[in-house]
Amino acid sequence: APENTLAAFREGARHGYRAFECDVKLSADDVPFLLHDTELDRTTPECGVASLRPWSELSRTDAGIWHSRAYAGEPLPSLRAIAAFLQANGFALDLEIKPTPGDEERTGRLVAAEVARLWAGQAQVPVLSSFQPEALQGAMQAAPQLPRALLVDTNWPGWFEVAQRLVCVAVITNRQLMDATLIAQLHDAGMRALVYTVNDTNEAQRLIALGINGIITDAVDRFSPC
């Protein structure tokens, strides 16, 4: 199914998954919606920077036709629509904050405030994750009660201390960075260890044997969710 759409969530649920990951950013009028890239070109027929368009335009954008004709007309979903689906089914969420470059702190702040509003009174709330510490800083300022996770793609200096400063509950690394030593370091610090994106069954089994807490995968048809 096309990424970051309700169709993709439904496909995962059909395979028995109860926890999901997606990317969120802001429209020109500050509506949180799902999209991975800064620009629209790769996953829609449109082009240009997505955050320069109001939600009234983005909500009519086809986010499925690039994948296949079967998904033609699948819209870009708002965070509100995703929240309704997840809460109706009792599903969990890792919500990756994907700011437009230069808008990291404000995006984190506004997304966190909207998550706090949408999930108010819910026993299970999303984990807010990001590669951008500034986005997590904004999230912490706006809604300190929401759990946070730092995404790490390369072993850049000081990332562990940043995760601690942001009071992260987890660190989610590129699968190639994760080993037994790092898992132990994170567990000793009271954080969970997760990895992305594992689509190979042998690699998944290796990480599970090391004591990984969670795996993000695209291969919902290949792995058991348990």
Which structural category fits the helices and strands? alpha/beta
Number of helices: 8
Unreliable parts: none
Biggest pleated sheet: 8 strands, mixed
Distance between the termini: 21 Å
Overall radius of gyration? 17 Å
What integer is the average pLDDT?
97
Bulk shape: globular
Proportion of beta-strand residues: 15-25%
Helix-strand pattern = HEEHHEHEHEHEHEHE
List the helices and strands and how they pair.
Blueprint: H1 6-14, E1 19-26, E2 32-34, H2 55-58, H3 79-89, E3 92-97, H4 104-118, E4 127-130, H5 133-142, E5 148-152, H6 159-165, E6 170-174, H7 180-188, E7 192-196, H8 201-210, E8 214-215
Parallel strand pairs: 1-3, 3-4, 4-5, 5-6, 6-7, 7-8
Antiparallel strand pairs: 1-2
